[in-house]
Amino acid sequence: MPAPPLDARRMRVTDDDRWDLLGARCPACGHTVHPVRVACVRCGRATEVVTLRPVGTVVASTVVHTTRPDVALRPPFGVALVRLVDGPVLAAPVREGEDPAHGDRVALAAFDVGEGDERRRALQVTVAGS
Length: 130
Ligand SMILES: [Zn+2]
What we know:
With 130 residues, the protein is mainly β. The chain has strands spanning 11-13, 19-25, 32-33, 48-52, 55-64, 77-84, 89-93, 105-113, 120-127. Residues 50-108 form the ChsH2 C-terminal OB-fold domain.
């Protein structure tokens, strides 16, 4: 059985262990955001949930050297800010051993964090094509 999503506003895991990157698109003005929001941040109209293509371009990245008890990743780990081809910008940890630079084309992949009943599916950034 696939691990449930860490945040159901960000991704949907299906029974066959596939996943969708979720966003919200405003039918009135077309503005698209990630994660899902019920109202448009530009015009306030009700949004509709859409599936976003999990590919984009790195606009910034950094290495995190500290952690908190509620973060399953062990430092140091990379985090990249990615502008998706569908518009929204999101931040996600970078796959271990990879170091995407500003302007690199990347993809989002799913990975499991936590153990046992705490295991959840989350997103990570990976160099496109790897
Ligand atoms: Zn709108």
